[in-house]
Amino acid sequence: MMKSFRKLTGNIAFKIVLGIVALSFVFFGVSSFVLGNSSNWVAQIGGKKISYSTLQKAMKENRELILKSYGNNEQAMQYLESDQFTSDSLSRIVNQEMVKNLSSEYDIKASEKIVLENIAKDKNFADETGKFNQTKFKDFLKRSGINEDLYVNEIINQTSMLMIIQTMEIAAPVSSKKIIDIINFNEEKRMVDLVSINEKNVKNIESVSEKEVEKYYNDHKKEFSLPEFRKILLAKFTAKDLASAIEIKEQEIVAEYEKNKESYTTEETRDFYHVVFDEEKQAQEFIANLKKINQNDNKKIASQFASLAKEQAKKDLKTITLNQTNKKQLLTETVSKAFALKINELSSPIKSSLGYHVFLLNNINQSQTKSLAQVRDEIKNKLNEKKKDGALAKKISELDSELLSSSSIGESLNKSKINSPINQYNIDNSGKDPSGNAIFSQDNEIIVKNVFALKKNQNSKTITSQDGLTFYVLQVTDIIPSKTQELASVAKAIQQKLQNDKKEIALSALAHEVSAEISQNLNNLALVTNKYRLKLEKNRLMPRTYVINYQGQQFPYRSPLLDKIFSIELNQSTGAINDSGGYSIAILRDIKKPQINQQLVEEVAKSSQKLFRSDIMQQFNNYLMNKYPVKVNEKIFRKNQEN
């Protein structure tokens, strides 16, 4: 189920719907909350309790919004029935409350007037002249399944949250002392005497013998094994290349509606009053007291239930009301008994993971057939997809028949009236060419699998991409078997490798030998460098960090040599450091502090504030959770956290 949900939320359109449902700035998910244990609430935010009925109503609103946008989409239905949907609905409530708390604390709220002005300037709602088009805006709201008030209020909440964050960023303080410390650290330079050693300084390296080459070849034969290659012809095309435009006529829509009218109905729901208690004894007392007050007068039982709930359970009318509730919105343990009640009938205590429930059924909202006008777009989309799938399947079937009977994929494509270029490739079983370059940026695995399942001169059937949007046909024109390269063809490469290995070993030995002598002659480096004929740079100024310019951008780079230079004391040696293909040895002679001017201070202040703001935002959530601690009811959400 979660795999299907992830696939659904990967859809851009679905993200837009969820984005409107949860437009408020998202700080947390249920998994980040502290667990509590109660039957009276599902969550607490800074002491404020969120009741079970509040969550049920939020889930109902979210469910209706998603169903209006997606109808009976299988993935949407799986999501709506999942624990994830419950968690997301609660997260939305928590985040909305958090925004309210912070807006009140900081006395910040986005102006409704400014929000409306910006909506009016939104290019998505503009006509050809660039003016706001009310019809476009209404169409957007209709497609999204929301009304104008909800849309505007959620944008106000989002904007308020961003204003709070920006206010914090602007106020981020960085002291002048801190700036000076940063400048002194970053801009400090160090003067060194630098000795460089490279392979040219290494003398009398023994040549690689034929015997060594042969031994390496025999010990590493797998390195010289060439994989099997296959030469192929491949054509790529999309669904648009296979199916022409599809027209849905009005009489088809009417016929589909009349044929399946029973499926286009609203769901039967119930209106309940509902109270939940920690202990069965409390629930029994509530029922007994209500029956004593009521005296079998069904006309008064609803008002009496509400009064007693307020008196005995401390629950107001809003908290106990569950209107237009379907079976999926109730806890599993309570559904059958609650939906078996008659109007004005009181349930016995019903046990669930939340406690002991008492229901009173106030009304049954019967299922009703939707009008054709209400479902016309839904039917049209359904018929369009059905025709599209049918036309696509028919075209693929025809193409597969052509590929099966033909020796040429080009001929098969022409007969199927598919205009697609045919490309030639030579690939191994990883999808790479003989030079090691990857050929296919997408669908590599499925293409390679089909290539290596075919015989020489055999055509494939139509291959469908993982996303179902692209199709391939291919033919294997030649098979080049795997083989081990002969020693003669690789001997030169082996000899070069072994020679380089010997040079590296000799260079490392020389560098460490020189380093040991320099340590004994720190004030007479020329004695050592002349002996080994090494390059010596006196008084070279080294920065803490190099800056590399690449494609118009600057990237900081700190080498092992620089790190060592900035970690030693005056007149100390770094030792031999592997650096840029050779070895370097530096002796620290002086430390140069930076000259501080106003321009440098301002530049460092800006960069420091940016880093500091980032650090503030990392700490912001910790502050919120301390200021407004959030708990969720472990009886409901323990399973979610474990999953």
Furnish the topology, listing elements before pairings.
Blueprint: H1 2-9, H2 12-21, E1 34-36, E2 43-45, E3 48-50, H3 52-70, H4 74-80, H5 83-106, H6 112-121, H7 134-144, H8 148-170, H9 176-187, E4 189-197, H10 210-219, E5 225-226, E6 229-238, H11 239-242, H12 250-259, E7 269-277, H13 280-294, H14 301-312, H15 317-320, E8 321-325, H16 332-339, E9 350-352, E10 355-365, H17 372-405, H18 409-415, E11 422-427, H19 444-451, E12 463-464, E13 470-480, E14 483-484, H20 487-519, H21 525-532, E15 535-543, E16 546-550, E17 553-557, H22 560-565, E18 577-579, E19 582-592, H23 598-627, E20 630-633, H24 634-642
Parallel strand pairs: 1-20
Antiparallel strand pairs: 2-3, 2-20, 4-15, 4-19, 5-14, 6-11, 6-13, 7-8, 7-10, 9-10, 12-13, 16-17, 18-19
What's the short story on this structure?
The protein is of the alpha+beta class and 643 residues long. The longest helix has 34 residues, at 372-405. It starts with a helix and ends with a helix.
